[in-house]
Every structure is written in C-alpha cells, then in structure tokens.
Amino acid sequence: MNYLIISGNPKGGGLCQDVTEEALRGAKDGGASAGTLLVEKLERCHVCGEGWGSCREQHKCAFEKDGFGAAQDTVRKADQLCFITPVYWGEMAESLKSFFDRLRRCEFGQNGVLSGKQILLVASPGGSGNGALSCLEQMDRFCRHTGAVIFDYIGINRWNNDYKKKAVYSAARAMTEGRKAGTTL
Ligand SMILES: Cc1cc2nc3c(=O)[nH]c(=O)nc-3n(C[C@H](O)[C@H](O)[C@H](O)COP(=O)(O)O)c2cc1C
C-alpha cells in the first residue's frame, strides 16, 4: 500500500507534528510505504474565467506549474491517505484549504484521483480545544465532493492526546493492514 499524509501544519514541532509521526508510524507498522505531502508553498485557486477554468474539463489546473501538478500526481499515486491539520479558527489550516480548493475543482466526482480511496481525518485544535468538529466537517465535505471514503474522524487536543495519539496510530495501522470502512468487528 502507498499511504500518503497530507498535512496543513506549518510547524516543525508541537502537537500536530507529534500526531503526524503517530500516523506515519501506524502506517509503516501496517506494512505501507508512507510519505508526507506538505502544501504550504502552493498558491490559492485563481478562480479562472467566470468560475471555472481548465480544471472542469481537463482536470488540470491552469497554474499547475507552481507545484500543484506534482502534488496532484502524488495524490494520484497514493492508495490510502490521511489528512492532518492544526485547527485554525475552527477550520483546517489555510494552506490545506487552498490546496483542497484547487484539488476539488480538478477531481470532483466519482472518477477523480481520490474516488474510492480510504482517508483518515485528523484535526488538532490547540488553545481552547474548540473547532475540531467544524474542521472535521470541512474535511468531510471535501471527501464527499471527491468521492473519497472516510475511514475515521479523530479530534486530538492538549488534554486528550495521551489516548488520542494511540487512536491515530491504531487507525493508521488498521487501515493500512486492510480494514475497510463499514466492516463490523
Ligand atoms: C491562527 C490560529 C487560529 C487558531 N484557532 C484555534 C481554534 O479555533 N481552536 C483551537 O483550539 N485552537 C486554535 N489554534 C491553536 C492551534 O490549533 C494549535 O496551535 C495546533 O492545532 C496544535 O498545536 P501545535 O501548535 O502544538 O501543533 C489556533 C492557532 C492559530 C495560529
């Protein structure tokens, strides 16, 4: 299995980074080859034309040379994915949202690069702990628009990360070992 983490975390240390390492460790222990895609250097959608550009018919972004095309290819090659983000303003990090805005336009529907692929969703709020639910809901909507299959939702914060890190590890491992969303244990 080729397992890919897409992260919106701009920091090198801290809770979100710890969680990312657990999501990597779980996937490797599950037998997957695992990597991380960072999207913070990519530009936002230019909103071409009157709302649509080449994304609609060609499934390519007109500005793909900024690294978006390469990132889209990396997603294409992944069998399973994990989206991890710090919670900012009750939403995913702006860099991740910008990437998803562009990717959704290219990959909307049942024939795109995410269609049918299992995804683990992880949101890490830090201060109040508020906003995990709205952030996960935002990622959920992206998955539904692109036909991805949500494997699990995990919200992790300052006071639950002792047991939630174990949940992230276990979810990544179970998914990469072959468990399917919808299976009854
Ligand atoms: C611009 C900004 C907005 C934030 N909004 C929230 C929020 O809505 N809820 C929350 O609990 N934490 C919020 N935080 C804190 C981050 O979620 C927190 O830094 C991160 O998720 C996890 O901790 P880490 O920085 O140690 O990785 C915010 C941080 C920033 C920089």
Automatic annotation (TrEMBL):
UniProt GO MF annotations: oxidoreductase activity
Gene3D superfamilies per the UniProt record, alphabetical: 3.40.50.360
Protein name in the entry: Iron-sulfur flavoprotein
Source organism: Treponema primitia (strain ATCC BAA-887 / DSM 12427 / ZAS-2)
Pfam families: FMN_red
Keywords: Flavoprotein, FMN
Domain NADPH-dependent FMN reductase-like: 1-150
PANTHER family tied to this protein: IRON-SULFUR FLAVOPROTEIN MJ1083 (PTHR43278:SF1), NAD(P)H-DEPENDENT FMN-CONTAINING OXIDOREDUCTASE YWQN-RELATED (PTHR43278)
